[in-house]
Amino acid sequence: MQDVDIEQMYKEAILELNRNPLNKKVLPYFSFELFSSNPSCGDECTIQVQLDRDGNIGDIGHQSKGCAISQAAISLITEEVKNQNIQDVKKITKEKMLELLGIPITHTRLKCALLGWSILQKFPE
Amino acid sequence: MNSIREQFPLLRTYKDLVYLDNAATTQKPESVIKAVTRFYEKQNANVHRGAYKLSDISSQLYVEAHTRVASFLNAYPDEIIFNSGATAGLNTLAYGLTKNLEKGDNVVLTRMEHHSNLLPWIEMSKRRGFEVRFIGLNPESGELLEEDIDTCIDERTRVVTFVHTSNVLGIVNPMHRLITRAKAMGALTVVDACQAVAHQKIDVKALDCDFLVFSGHKLYGPTGIGVLYGKKERLEKMDPFHYGGGMVARVSDLSIAWKDAPMKFEAGTPHIAGAIGLSAALKYLENLGWEEIFSHTETLTKYATETLSKIKDVKIFGKNAERRGMIAFEVEGVHSHDVAQIFDSENIAVRAGQHCATLFVQELTDNGIVRASMGIYNTKKDIDKLIVGIEKVKKMFHV
Ligand SMILES: Cc1ncc(COP(=O)(O)O)c(C=O)c1O
């Protein structure tokens, strides 16, 4: 049985994002809003996106609860996509998301790491 | 019960593993693994079909497995139906017992049910129009609300179905109270004994329930084998859920006569090796002694509660209720999955999350619940190891 490096997984940067998540806010005006969850963990996430005139993400906010990994991942992806065109956002691969997170992820935690990313993939173009 | 660990090949392989996820599934003793292997190596043939010697042997073993389960439950062998697990049993019952229900009738559940004793009834209520009612829970203690028992179960209640021992908090429900009320209102009773059977012998005559289900893998038997017990006269009246080979006494083009239970409910080739494995598990547990097993669980549960109570920032759920075989808790401010992950780095296996009981868990906490569930091979040392894990969580998360 392979051990993950737990210190790496819960490195300070991840814990900091868990304590103080980025973009965790309600947008007063938004173009789209989507919700998703991981029913077995109870992780839940709603993302709101405000598109500007050119179809770029002007502002983004999420309301979510879940484990440190999901909270950190949602922070990172919502930060990453700011000012990007929604079509480009949808081209962000799973691998890229994991790279952003930059920590070892076990099979069972993959769905935590990908929750926020998977919501952005579902936004209408 | 210290040398018990030695009888489990997986636990011999992983010497440092602290396995505390027994409510999800238990490890298998050597005798069970051997019984299954022996079957495939020396006894394998289909049952109730061939006239040859091997088929005779496997049929006999399969019948003996019914007998052993019957004696475990204090039932008759023809009241024991083998299937793939509790989920199959509960679906069979939800289908078979609601066939003639109509608008105005109701089925009573509790808020504590595992999804397998919730979704089948909800689905049937959509198709057949009866009402599903829930006995609520006391948010503080986690126990069933006494007053709901009388208000929910009334003269239009046809079935009352409930968990014996909760898989989330380990709470033991007031069986006598529920069954007495159901009987007084003329309703049938279904008991989900999945968690209970790992810790105690069950007596269906003393309980006087109409039906009872459990899965073999939760009491040291193989996966894929389960038991549906039904009182003989109830099984006679119920329609099967699956149709196929081995269940008919006589077929003509238009009319079919079912064989008697259990055959009527065991269409198709059964999981023969599973039944034999389950039988071996029961034999193993009988040899250990049910009283011994029961008191072992009680001691560990009590010890875990006392030990974890002493730690700051740990909240135990259902702490003061009658609980068996597990302890459910949260480390305040930390999500249960993070706790379980850090425990894993100390080789402690526990379950985290919603435990197939979303509604119930969400009422208790946003962080999900960490559940440490005990088996016959666990010791006080394993519980002490939990403390090491919790301290590591607190350190890493700066709690
Ligand atoms: C109380 C309870 N009921 C039903 C089940 C379903 O059992 P299975 O998945 O083996 O069918 C479980 C197992 O998780 C359980 O704990």
From TrEMBL, chain B:
Gene3D superfamilies the record matches: Aspartate Aminotransferase, domain 1, Type I PLP-dependent aspartate aminotransferase-like (Major domain)
Biological process annotations from GO: cysteine metabolic process
Keywords: Pyridoxal phosphate, Transferase
GO terms assigned for molecular function: cysteine desulfurase activity; pyridoxal phosphate binding
Coiled-coil segments: none
Annotated EC: 2.8.1.7
SUPFAM superfamilies xref list: PLP-dependent transferases
Cross-referenced InterPro entries: Aminotrans_V_dom, Aminotrans_V_PyrdxlP_BS, Cys_dSase_SufS, Cysteine_dSase, PyrdxlP-dep_Trfase, PyrdxlP-dep_Trfase_major, PyrdxlP-dep_Trfase_small
Cofactor(s) essential for the protein: pyridoxal 5'-phosphate
Superkingdom, natural source: Bacteria
Transferase in keyword set: yes
Pfam family, one: Aminotran_5
Reactions mediated catalytically: (sulfur carrier)-H + L-cysteine = (sulfur carrier)-SH + L-alanine
Family: Belongs to the class-V pyridoxal-phosphate-dependent aminotransferase family. Csd subfamily.
UniProt xrefs under PANTHER family: CYSTEINE DESULFURASE, CYSTEINE DESULFURASE 1, CHLOROPLASTIC
Record's protein name: Cysteine desulfurase
Organism: Candidatus Magasanikbacteria bacterium CG11_big_fil_rev_8_21_14_0_20_39_34
Lineage: Bacteria, Candidatus Magasanikiibacteriota
